[in-house]
Amino acid sequence: MFTALIAGVIVWLLVASRLTARSWEDPGEAGNGGGVAMAPARIGLWVFMAVATSLFSLFLSAYLMRMHHGFWCHVDPPRILWLNTSLLVLASVAFQRARGAVDRGQKGQVRSSLAAGGVLTLAFLAGQFLAWRELAPTMYFIQGSPATASFHLLTGVHGLHVLGGLWAWGRVVARLGGGAELIDVRLGVQLCTVYWHFLLVVWLVLFATLSTT
Question: What letters, b where the CB count within 10 A reaches 16 and e where it falls short, cover 108-135?
Fold first, then answer.
């Protein structure tokens, strides 16, 4: 599990460093679009998501197996998680709009959609923090309640992945705000969009698991 986590961090750093690179601006790549599709950053992102999927699968497997051993007290997820889920869905939609706007050459739409996606994601994280605060009175049960500990672990690890995405998003937004052309940030927007869809799918699985077990 820890090996998978370390590998994921390394791959993510490689992907993030490529988000603002200019390798796709090569005329031979920009002219036919094939360079974008085969960009190393795109491959790296898919590798990272595969590693992250394995990591979350391990956590979920441990969670489900632990339910049948020893003391287990179901933790009712705070209701704010429903709002948080809606925020992450809207963030994913905003990034999809940004991706479509890049393909259409609508720079203003790209800016507004990226801004909306980032703000909604920050609101999601704020909501997750409020959910943790709501469970704060039961924090002293963590040692004796694997369910409570698992809730914090699963949501916390997902939150770290969201923060990593926001860091990459911030670099793309900074380049766009610095006057970069759409071709300069096209790949970054595409990768952020894919990653946000991934974050949404992972969260939906986690939320469903935490709500029904």
Answer: eebeebbbbbbebbebbbebbeebbeeb
pLDDT-derived band of residue 23, with 50, 70 and 90 as boundaries? very low
Structure tokens given for 23: 């390798």
CATH topology of domain 2-212: Four Helix Bundle (Hemerythrin (Met), subunit A) (1.20.120)
Q: pTM score, two decimals?
A: 0.78
pLDDT digits (tens, 9 = 90+) for 154-187: 899 999 999 999 999 999 999 998 888 888 889 9
